[in-house]
Design goal:
alpha+beta; four-stranded antiparallel sheet; globular
Length: 301
């Protein structure tokens, strides 16, 4: 079944409230996906300071966050001290270097680890367990920023593991969450692998994320990438996709998975159910609507 929530803030005065608002939204859809919960936050300078890149990683057994910090420091030119935040299964490592350089350093320093998010504006948290408990583990309530999304999972296509949790962040400052099931994901996975794309899980949703990331890397915008996804993927889906400056929603041709969008001058929000939006400031004045089938709804920062 799964639950999706997302919040794109237009009013900078609301940035300090992002985490609190997102946690409330997440907990309102918790029973839609009791297996796990993942969160992505854009602009939280506690975890990714200005001038830094951040990498979210699932560490292999036996490796502690302190071990990872020391190994990453040694792998980076000049040996800068990384900022390391442990949040349950996820460890966020930030350093004053470029995103690609930090990703390479983490993969070199922590063999067997799984990078689950990267960028200059993004922190991703993934874990198994009750969504409300995980929100506290992530210290989501204290997060600040301009955009966030979260997902609660009821697993149908792959195992309940942190690697299989959403969001899937497979490109710099990019995230995808999915409610539904892609019917032809195995075929598209083979096609992407033939072009050199590597996968971290057997989750069908990761295939969608890898497809979108490949299109964005070729220069497409979010609107174009999601239109192409609708042409190529079969199945049932509601998707929320975010990038360094974008927030987009799309549903499949028969729109069988629930979704509602609310929009005001201060924010744009999306959720699987209206009750997740009910606590947002000024929601009583929002324009509320259900997204139409195969129509891409996109906003730019």
């Amino acid at each position: 079944m799964c639950g999706i929530v997302g919040l794109h803030l237009r009013d900078p005065g609301l940035y300090p409230q992002l985490g609190r608002l997102l946690e409330t939204m997440l907990c309102q859809v918790a029973e839609r996906g009791p297996d796990s919960a993942g969160v992505a936050v854009y602009g939280d300078r506690r975890r990714c300071p200005e001038g830094h890149a951040a990498v979210s990683v699932l560490l292999p057994p036996g490796v502690t966050p302190d071990d990872a910090a020391a190994a990453v420091r040694a792998a980076l030119p000049g040996g800068p001290d990384p900022l390391v935040t442990a949040a349950g299964d996820t460890t966020v490592i930030a350093a004053p270097v470029g995103t690609a350089e930090l990703v390479d350093a983490v993969r070199t320093a922590v063999p067997g680890g799984t990078v689950v998010g990267s960028g200059t504006d993004l922190a991703v948290y993934k874990g198994t367990g009750a969504p409300a408990d995980l929100a506290r583990t992530y210290d989501l309530r204290s997060a600040q920023g301009w955009q966030g999304l979260a997902h609660t999972r009821m697993a149908t296509e792959s195992a309940v593991t942190p690697q299989g949790c959403h969001p899937f962040s497979v490109g710099p400052d990019q995230c995808l969450v999915h409610n539904g099931s892609f019917a032809n994901h195995a075929t598209i996975r083979r096609e992407l692998r033939a072009t050199g794309v590597e996968f971290d899980s057997d989750n069908d949703s990761e295939v969608g994320a890898r497809f979108v990331a490949a299109r964005l890397a070729r220069g497409d915008d979010l609107d174009t990438a999601l239109r192409l996804l609708c042409e190529r993927f079969d199945g049932f889906y509601t998707l929320l996709v975010t990038s360094a400056d974008g927030f987009a929603v799309v549903r499949d041709a028969i729109a069988c998975k629930p979704a509602v969008i609310a929009e005001t001058d201060a924010w744009v929000a999306m959720a699987s159910e209206y009750r997740a939006l009910a606590g947002l400031p000024g929601v009583e004045h929002a324009r509320l609507y259900e997204p139409e089938p195969e129509k891409v709804y996109a906003w730019t920062r």
